[in-house]
Write a sequence for this structure.
């Protein structure tokens, strides 16, 4: 039977839409099947109560890859990012607070109120992070190659990254190696002395990580978080991203069907042939691209009795343990902020607009790395934390259209609410959780409770049920070095392909992971396209170049330099400590 | 080293040679007497008692037990009848054999799988989507092979199981004394024989009863050395000797498919998906690369090589299991390797099991095998012959009491 489409995309999350639009623009017939009544998945903005629209799942995210913004003409489809300034505001219970601004000078002044040393260090820290992320950024846009046999194009990309890493110099390379194994807390302790600053920098990088800040390997997650590029928000809420992508899809001729619940991926000896829907109908396609997470794709959408036991096991041990509960509030008006009243607020005279401005970005609750570690301990042992770490946003400040005039919506990501509660289960725990969170937030927003007109809570169990997220994990699976790069989604699968011919995966569960960059979707679309029509002209040129003596030479030199530098850095790392040179302060405005 | 089997209190005093070997983590006697020849004669002339408790044994229960086993094994277990046993192997996704053993349908929703190597993890990995429970009964179940021409009489006299009516590869529940047992008409000797299974706590009483009841039928304990000879005569391959299980192999060149091992008859290809099916289909379409064959090494040539040194011909009385190169008929190109072999006292032939390139597998093909004579490598003619080398009618027959098969064949009848 003839396929009805070249490609079926399961799920209309941002990666599914990116992939669909990319494939359709390359002339392929594409259908996107979305179970929910609207597109977007975890990147959506939905009306929770009449007049109030919220970001139900993700409330912050990275920026879509620049090439996507350009190729899919997303600005013409209405996507606009607004810089959050300050991008984070961290109040303390004692009334002090810290804001990190886009203008580094302003941030330095704020930090200096806590520590003059940290204020100086901050600029260097930003330079350090920028240097590290700059070297490895090309990783985002490449498909994970098969380790044992990368193709020539991939070798070139790897060589380029190798060269970048080499160009970091000995110190930089040494740092990269240290980052891979050390803990976030140790790294931040090396740089700073202010607890609040360290906690503010660490917390967002732990969202997709089933670990606390003192776990080895988390330093790399801190860099990874910065790599994704946060600090901006799409105008109109997270849903604006997928809204623009939906328009780009339709403009490219993609057929998007909502309310289409895929119950099974169909495959035979020749590979994937299409999907079956829960209403019993089936749709045939030459390729199936799953935007569902790896566990959902392998363990629910493929028939258990037919899937290879080795693959099924790899999917079963892929860790997706959500620890974030989402709490949404509709507010009569903006709550008072204790830290922006009275003697501790030293930034001058405070007007309403100043208060509002301070709350434009993320609001971080969590005083120190100890707070983060203890909250994690609770989650680790199956309790939701009584001293929770929270990321609060009030998106209606930047975008008044999200609430009726003068009113606001507040969303809270509570980071220490594990999917599995050791006692009681979420049925009874849910309301107590909201009450407790409101009590804790009351210490920072004294009149918050009296402002609440509606409230809604989503535990990881709710997120799993509503959005099909295994373990309620908003990033489709834990971020950890053994679950990233060519080991994401599963060791032994490469280039977004699966062990079943014609079945591909995209989404946060694949490389490079969560963060709303759209890189997974774009990379996966490229691989699907190549499987349909062979390598693109550009790809062929790269491969030809790589096959030529010069290209091979370059690749070999790049790889050689990287290996040589790694060896040198290793010997240096294990050599006796010596005075470490630090980069000089460049002084320009930097953002994280 | 090992742990004792449930029969150890009985086998230990009988093992006069004090020669023990580790087998699957257990102490297993190589031979009971100072030489193993008598134990070989027990297997072929009367009845040998051989402790097979070290085998790995798994009970599979549940409503999907048959479907689950059909998924894991290359055999369609749904075709099995109640109280039937089947020889089987199982593969990984690439169609490489992991291990081989027997599967028995013991009762309602109750199957038992035996294997040479620990298999629980692999079984467990395959249970997704099946309502089954797997229990490792390797140490909980004791088993004894009673093998040889008088084995039927031994069990008729020691058990209440009508073994004279028990068909080849069938089993029956019954008692030996007051011990509940399962008797299966199976074995690893290629002769008339049975395997008796019971709970480990009953093992010693069962052993005593069989030895006592069978005394007048000349039953006696036999060890691994004698078994190794009879199993080669019977043409049976052994895991990790004649082939390397996929999970133990380091490279694909060390792995084998069922077809290459001569186990193609245990593969039911056209049915619901099972592990390795796609790869095996491709192999069938493409043709196998290797084949397991029986070789008969030319005695006159070997004798001539010894004669050149002024020596009488000499071969070990024990089976060997060292990889030995096999060449084409002119001895210029290596085409495979022999993996085990033996002098057959019964057939008076020098036998070997070998894996050769498929095009050299036809019966009658003349090959050369490397033989070391007085520290010199020689290439001696070896002919591909039919397996099993020894295949008496009594192996599969269902005799009734009082009409025993001819006890022996050929020269051994003296």
């Amino acid at each position: 039977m003839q396929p009805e489409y070249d490609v079926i995309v399961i799920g209309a999350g941002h990666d599914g839409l990116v992939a669909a639009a990319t494939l359709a623009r390359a002339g392929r017939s594409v259908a996107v099947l979305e179970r929910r009544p609207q597109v977007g998945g975890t990147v959506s903005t939905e009306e929770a109560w009449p007049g109030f629209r919220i970001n139900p799942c993700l409330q912050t995210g990275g920026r879509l890859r620049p090439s996507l913004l350009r190729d899919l003409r997303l600005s013409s489809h209405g996507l606009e990012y607004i810089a959050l300034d300050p991008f984070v505001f961290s109040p303390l219970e004692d009334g002090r607070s810290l804001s990190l601004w886009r203008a580094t000078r302003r941030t330095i002044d704020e930090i200096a109120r806590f520590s003059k040393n940290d204020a100086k260090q901050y600029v260097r820290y930003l330079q350090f992070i920028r240097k590290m992320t700059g070297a490895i950024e090309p990783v985002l846009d490449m498909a994970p190659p098969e380790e044992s046999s990368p193709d020539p194009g991939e070798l070139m990309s790897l060589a380029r990254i190798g060269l970048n890493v080499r160009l970091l110099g000995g110190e930089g390379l040494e740092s990269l190696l240290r980052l891979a194994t050390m803990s976030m807390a140790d790294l931040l302790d090396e740089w700073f002395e202010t607890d609040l600053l360290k906690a503010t920098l660490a917390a967002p990088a732990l969202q997709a990580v089933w670990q606390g800040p003192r776990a080895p390997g988390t330093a790399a997650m801190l860099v990874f978080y910065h790599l994704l590029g946060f600090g901006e928000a799409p105008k109109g809420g997270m849903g604006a991203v997928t809204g623009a992508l939906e328009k780009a899809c339709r403009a490219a001729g993609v057929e998007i069907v909502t309310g289409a619940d895929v119950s099974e991926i169909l495959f035979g000896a020749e590979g994937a042939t299409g999907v079956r829907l829960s209403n019993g109908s089936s749709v045939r396609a030459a390729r199936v691209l799953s935007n569902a997470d790896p566990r959902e794709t392998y363990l629910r959408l493929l028939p258990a009795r037919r899937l290879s036991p080795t693959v099924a096991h790899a999917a079963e041990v892929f860790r997706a343990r959500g620890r974030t509960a989402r709490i949404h509030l509709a507010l009569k008006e903006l709550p008072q902020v204790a830290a922006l009243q009275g003697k501790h607020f030293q930034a001058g005279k405070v007007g309403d607009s100043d208060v509002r401005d301070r709350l434009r970005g993320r609001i971080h609750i969590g005083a120190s790395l100890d707070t983060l570690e203890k909250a994690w301990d609770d989650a680790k042992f199956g309790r939701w934390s009584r001293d929770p770490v929270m990321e609060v946003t009030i998106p209606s400040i930047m975008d008044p259209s999200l609430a009726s005039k003068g009113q606001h919506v507040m969303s809270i990501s509570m980071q220490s609410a594990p999917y599995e509660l050791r006692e009681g289960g979420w049925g009874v725990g849910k309301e107590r959780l909201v009450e407790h969170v409101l009590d804790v937030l009351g210490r920072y927003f004294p009149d918050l409770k009296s402002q609440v007109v509606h409230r809604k809570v989503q535990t990881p169990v709710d997120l799993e049920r509503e959005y099909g997220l295994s373990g309620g994990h908003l990033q489709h699976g834990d971020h950890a070095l053994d679950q990233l790069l060519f080991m994401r989604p599963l060791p032994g699968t490469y280039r977004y392909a699966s062990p079943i011919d014609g079945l591909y995966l995209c989404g946060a569960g694949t490389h490079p992971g969560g963060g709303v960059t759209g890189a997974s979707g774009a990379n996966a679309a490229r691989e699907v396209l190549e499987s349909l029509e062979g390598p693109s002209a550009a790809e062929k040129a790269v491969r030809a170049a790589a096959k030529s003596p010069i290209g091979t030479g370059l690749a070999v030199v790049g790889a050689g330099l990287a290996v040589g530098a790694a060896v040198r850095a290793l010997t240096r790392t294990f050599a006796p400590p010596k005075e470490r040179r630090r980069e000089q302060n460049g002084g320009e405005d930097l953002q994280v | 080293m090992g742990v004792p089997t449930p029969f150890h209190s009985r086998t230990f005093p009988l093992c006069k040679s004090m020669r023990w070997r580790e087998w699957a983590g257990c102490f297993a006697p190589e031979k009971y007497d100072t030489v193993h020849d008598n134990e070989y004669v027990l297997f072929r002339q009367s009845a040998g008692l051989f402790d097979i408790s070290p085998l790995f044994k798994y009970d599979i229960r549940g409503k999907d037990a048959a479907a689950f086993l059909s998924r894991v094994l290359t055999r369609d277990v749904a075709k099995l009848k109640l109280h039937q046993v089947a020889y089987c192997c199982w593969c990984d996704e690439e169609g490489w054999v992991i291990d081989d053993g027997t599967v028995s349908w013991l009762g309602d929703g109750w199957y038992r799988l035996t294997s040479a190597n620990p298999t629980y993890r692999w079984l467990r990995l395959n249970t997704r989507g099946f309502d089954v429970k797997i229990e490792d009964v390797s140490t909980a179940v004791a088993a004894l092979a009673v093998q040889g021409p008088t084995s039927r009489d031994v069990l008729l006299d020691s058990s209440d199981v009508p073994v004279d009516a028990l068909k080849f590869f069938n089993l029956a529940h019954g008692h030996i004394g007051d011990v509940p047992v399962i008797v299966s008409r199976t074995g690893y000797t290629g002769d008339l024989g049975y395997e008796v299974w019971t709970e480990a706590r009953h093992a010693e009483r069962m052993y005593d009863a069989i030895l006592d009841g069978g005394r007048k039928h000349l039953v006696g304990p036999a060890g691994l050395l004698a078994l190794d000879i009879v199993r080669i005569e019977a043409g049976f391959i052994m895991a990790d000797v004649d082939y390397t299980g996929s999970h133990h192999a380091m490279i694909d060149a060390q792995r084998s498919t069922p077809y290459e091992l001569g186990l193609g008859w245990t593969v039911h290809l056209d049915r619901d998906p099972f592990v390795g099916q796609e790869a095996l289909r491709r192999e069938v379409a493409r043709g196998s690369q290797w084949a397991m064959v029986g070789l008969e090494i030319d005695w006159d040539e070997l004798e001539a090589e010894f004669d050149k040194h002024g020596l009488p011909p000499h071969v070990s009385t024990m089976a060997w299991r060292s990889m030995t190169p096999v060449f084409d008929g002119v001895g210029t190109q290596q085409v495979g390797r022999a993996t085990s072999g033996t002098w057959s006292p019964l057939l008076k032939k020098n036998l070997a099991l070998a894996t050769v390139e498929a095009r050299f597998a036809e019966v009658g093909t003349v090959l050369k095998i490397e033989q070391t004579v007085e520290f010199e490598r020689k290439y001696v003619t070896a002919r591909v012959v039919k397996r099993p080398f020894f295949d008496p009618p009594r192996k599969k027959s269902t005799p009734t009491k009082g009409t025993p098969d001819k006890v022996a064949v050929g020269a051994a009848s003296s």
In short: DSSP finds nine helices and 19 strands in chain B.
